[in-house]
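Let us practice reading a record.
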Amino acid sequence: MPQDSKPPSSKPAAAALDPITFAVVKNAMDAIVDEIAYTVIRTAKSEIVKDVMDYSAAICDARGEMVAQAKTIAQHLGAIPEAMASVQARWAGRIAPGDAIILNDPYLGGMHLPDIFMFHPVFHEGAVLAWIVVICHHTDVGGRVPGSNAADSTEIFQEGLRLPPLKLFEAGRINETLEAVIAINVRVPDRVLGDLHAQHAACQVGAREIGRMIQRYGGAGFSGYLDALLDYAERMTREEIRTWPDGTYRFTDHIDSDGLSDAPVPLSVAITVAGDQLTVDWAGSSPQVRAAINSTLSYTKSNTFLSVRCALKGDIPNNAGVFRAITVTAPEGSVLNPQPPAAVAARALTGYRVMDTMFGALAQIVPDVMPAAGEGGNTVVCIAGRKPDRSPFIVVDMISGCWGGRPDQDGIEAITNPSQNLSNAPVEVMERTHPVRIESYALVPDSCGAGRWRGGLGLERSYRLLADEAVLQLRADRVLYAPYGLDGGGTGGPAGNWLGEGAARRALPGKVTMEMRRGEVLTHHQAGGGGHGDPFARDPERVAHDVWNGKVSVEFARTRHGVAVDAATGTVDAAETTRLREARNS
């Protein structure tokens, strides 16, 4: 019989909780949620989930507060509270064991349509004690452009199949009607349904393991420890924020444009520290735009929470207790809190810039922690068409690039953005599965921002189309507004996009939907990370090492760092370096 999601009424007092058992439960929850994530990888159908790893997993308590998160895409998880609220509002009193509810509607707590949430309740003695949540980015959910991720859509109705909270599984049995509706609305139903079943399998693994925890500690005991985990994270977060200097700290960054106009899209933040509480206000940011880079409020909050979490100590648990110390506001009708039917498919780009903007403000509060701007978030290259047998193919490549220079170390190359845990798709997998050939995959020399600690280098990927024709959808940025440096560090190298080869090669805008023909080559250069600290304070031997490894040129070393390097031997000309640096300071 369906029941309300009510936790047991009697729980042990916080003082009665055993600290050893508390630590055991904390570590067990972390292990279980990672096992949920591993199950997704082992059972998923699409490359975007099993190779790129664009998915996430979490465990929530009966109220829907996240108590544990897997080592997956953290960017997703701050959106869970609003999505869970929609699920509980729609299905209150009608949830039963074996149910699995899916949702992707951005205006009901979702993020964009390809990200489908699945919520699986865990029951004990007729009441819901926990929820397993798995979110996957699906290869396609219909709409006007393959991949359902086009930046140039102008309303959500163009973007694909929109799902309010619906039961895909009811009492353990699949809803064949809903399954059929999904299958007929997407271009690659075998992949989409395969990934949905992978989500369900992972939810069942989580429910099984949480059930064992409940059997061991009892319903009230288990719920008491979950409450204690949330309170512990909140207490640790507030204790650290209390050490930050009170005041209001502001920063503005930009998205190049929305792709439909040339106007830049500013994001402005004001972080107010008052005792142990943060208020983050996004007033002054751009109004919502016509194109699909609008970020729903749930996603804006998620990236805001995550940015603060990156500035906190690493031993604070990753759960919703952290959120309690942070209040986030964004004006209605803004690019960070759009009103329907605004398009949101490419909202990830705006989420990345939310984090860049937050990092710029947080660097004024905790300058010994925050890095310069990285590549600006992953680039999405989607190439879709039909193979010779007329079966569809959709390449969804999410290129992960580099970090900016850090207060005590260089940026890192070929690494996921801090907001995610993505992996660059293996060349062999793309070429084996789809009619494309990767012509180049390399670091871009001289693309790093100069600094005492330089930024990471941007990546290059080139794709040759081997099918007769395809639709190209590109979502890139940082062409005009390069990643910023900190504390005197230089900006990173800008991004760039080109179609064609040799003299016929022409530049493309950062956001475009267009046709490609057989043999054409798309080349993308991702932006490099900003530098941290005075470039002329960089150790000359580090500069020479970068020259020797082909990361920067002799000219870059000379003009950006004031270091003279012999290209043939890779050694520093100490006398000329001294002259260059003294001349700069004179």
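A brief commentary: Residues 1-10 have pLDDT under 50 and may be disordered.
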